[in-house]
Amino acid sequence: MSEQNYYEILEVYPAANQEEIETAYRMLLYKYHPDHNPERADWAHLMTSKVVEAFQCLSDPEKRKLHNFQIYCPVKSRVPERGFFFFQKKQKKQWEGARAQFGAGLALFSRQKSKALSKFREAVLQWPKFPEALYNIGLCLVDLRKFEDARTYFKKVKAVNPKDPEIQRTLRRLDALARK
Amino acid sequence: MSKIIGIDLGTTNSCAAIMQDNELVIIPNSENTRTTPSVVSIMKNNEIVVGEPAKRQEVINPETTIFSIKRFMGLKLADPMVQKDRELVPYNLVEAANGDVRVQVHNRNFSPPEISAMILRKMKRDAETFLGEKVEKAVITCPAYFNDSQRQATKDAGRIAGLDVLRIINEPTAASLASGFDRKTRRKIAIYDLGGGTFDISILELGNGVFEVKSTSGDTHLGGDDFDQEIINWLIEEFNKKEKIDLRQDRIALQRLKEVAEKAKCELSARPVAEITLPFIASDSSGPKHLNAKLIRSKLEELTKKLVESTIAPCEQALSDAGLRANKIDEVVIVGGMSRMPKVREVVRKLFNKEPFPGVDPDETVAAGAAIQASVLKGNIRDILLLDVTPFSLGIRTEGGMMSKIIEKNSTIPVRKSEIFSTAKDNQTFVRIQVYQGEKPMAADNKLIGTFDLIGIPPAPREVPQIEVSFDVDANGIVRVSATDLGTGKEQAIKITPNSGLSESEITQYTKEQSESKLPDRHDATKHKTFESGKQVDYQEVKSDKPGDDGEVKKSDKKKGLFGLFGG
To answer: How far is C-alpha A57 from the chain's CA centre?
Structure first.
């Protein structure tokens, strides 16, 4: 499950300034608010609630920076298959265990970062060089605003895949985010 | 579409208004005044008298004339606020089976929403006479600092009165709608609302016609009534000093004192001195005694200094919650009857360093705002939008008795927030969730507003089932809870046990009773015992066989070991 893109909800460009965001917010309130949609109150309630949530994030510079990071660095959900020889039964079992934990972490990721974090950590315990799990741990830590810890994990990903351009970008974005 | 009226259901006075052809009209009552005293008198023959005629009964029938009922809306008798306020009223309060307050008149128990409904029914009838057509829909206001059960009680009162309550809106927010700002320019507004029984402060931001509340705070048990009480206490003491007679023992004398105290208070807003005379207030062996006193404005200010000052802390709280300093506020609006008191205006002026916004009628603005909101709901006004907040945090009790907040206070409403729950034991088929409201870290220190059980969870190892529980606070500020099993995608069955309020059948029954010209006989008072000190022996018996507040909590405490739950 991907993160909600608040820019899409508010129908603005990611480069929009505060005034544009506020104007868009108010226009959408008129469109969605239950007061103006008595015939479909439940839908209006849900949409208004979403718009308010999006605005509250984007109107706060700190939260907006974090959200920008989250939409540009989405969670890793796909894991390449790994082959094992018949004599690697033990490794195969460990890998499968790690994969299961990884899947559980993914299911929790969008809702409960701290729980997802512990699942990804268990995956890494069983399979230390698991780049996708290491990467997602970093994302969870960013969400919990532990930027330095997150950096350590992203660096571990880099150590496994030194040539991956994506991890370079993520590290740069993390630097921008951690800068005051 | 039928007409929708706006009603300010106040502690001491109520007022109704309507938008007609883009013009605001305050609806006069059958006595031809623009506000109606929120007083109900129940006669021996079950006849109900409401408003000015009832107010005149106060002195003659103090025990059957009910005023300030709003102070007891949606509350439990054991609530410390209720215990404090019952000293202010001469009528008898008893406890309902669920712990809610009931008013006992002629051996018959009335719930506060029923009494409020009697006031609303009169407002409705008078509006129908004035408009010449049926009125079935209304927007009713309540203090911003009212909690879920108090709001629900207000809504129930409307239903009992035969009104479809389209929206409950907050009084200060309503006042801001009707204050006549230029809606196009952006500005920050503070609304200070000190009424008969409640105090509210709301900080709003206005832009493009959107009235967005940033924060709200207040005290639901602070208002003009308390000022009157200070004057009464002073009069009693003065009289006692002079005549050595304690007037507190005499309910009729107290009622007469209340009347003159309120009058003197109002007089002192315009004049520096008020003369108080109450002939034949008491008598002893030497003959009848009269009360003669002169109250000067500075004395009143001294008597009520504490009360006025107790409004400052909520103002500061609201400002800090909104992340603003007092000097960032562009406009200050003062509403509520107490805003006429010069000292109150002075305190507000000092606090915000600004002259209050002129041209605001303190008694009618709130009703006018409700009428404007009614017009918005009708679709006649398209360029105004109210966006309010919830005054308290909402959360659930989690392991260790902690309160896990799901919706923070001052969250914009409508709002939906979800949490994932799971089971703590293998093959557990239900979890119990207790919803609390308040700011304290321990759940038990906050107010339990409802309990619900998630049932029918398919058997699975612990922590595997994923149940998403959604908390919705609608635009009325009323909370709703729903649940979905993420595993099956099925809506989970939930059973909510509200901790207070009227049942659906009670509402239907009261609605039917009140639609008659006279109340039908009903003798239910014997079922409940009075909760007055000295009569508590009987009470014990009743308590053991009803699922009371305390019993409920203890039961679930015990269960927690078996059916613990975890949530984010």
So the answer is: 15
Q: What is the pLDDT of residues B266-307, one digit of tens each?
A: 999 989 999 988 888 888 888 888 888 889 999 999 999 999
Question: How far apart are alpha carbons B407 and B67 in whole angstroms?
Answer: 35
Q: Of A71, A96, A115, which marks where a domain is finished?
A: A71
Query: Does residue A97 sit within a domain?
Result: yes
Q: Which two tokens stand for residue A137?
A: 């741990």
Domain count for chain A, please give it: 2
- Asked about B70 being catalytic, the answer comes back as yes
- A15 and A50 inside one domain: yes
Would you call B472 and A45 a contact, using CB atoms and an 8 Å cutoff?
yes
Structure confidence by residue, pLDDT tens digits, B151-200 = 999 999 999 999 999 999 999 999 999 887 777 788 999 999 998 889 99
Query: Chain A neighbours among B 159-188 (CB < 8 Å)?
Result: 167
Measuring CA to CA, how many Å separate B527 from each of B73, B523, B530?
21, 9, 10
Kindly report the nearest CA distance between residue A28 and chain B, in angstroms. 11
Contact call for residues A155 and A161 (beta carbons, < 8 A): no
Catalytic (active site) residue B171: yes
Q: Kindly write down the DSSP assignment for every residue of A126-172, as one continuous string.
A: H-S--HHHHHHHHHHHHHTT-HHHHHHHHHHHHHHSTT-HHHHHHHH
In 3D space, the residue among B55, B92, B89 whose CA is nearest the CA of residue B70 turns out to be: B89
Q: Do B387 and A108 touch (CB under 8 A)?
A: no
Q: Is residue A156 a part of any domain in this protein?
A: yes
Same domain, A93 and A173: yes
Residue A137 falls inside a structural domain? yes
Q: What is the tens place of the pLDDT at every residue in B340-366?
A: 999 999 999 999 999 988 778 888 999
B556 touches chain A (CB under 8 A): no
In this structure, the answer to whether residues A138 and A58 fall within a common structural domain is no
ipTM associated with this complex: 0.80
A46 and A111, same domain (yes or no)? no
In a domain, A158, yes or no: yes
Residue span of the structural domain in which A56 resides: 6-71
| Domain at A91, CATH number | 1.25.40.10
- Report the gap between the CA of A31 and the closest CA in chain B (Å): 10
Residue B393, min C-alpha distance to chain A (Å): 16
State whether A37 and A110 are in the same domain.
no
Residues of chain A contacting B, Cβ within 8 Å: 22-23, 26-27, 29-30, 33-36, 38, 44-46, 48-49, 52-53, 56, 107-108, 111-112, 114-115
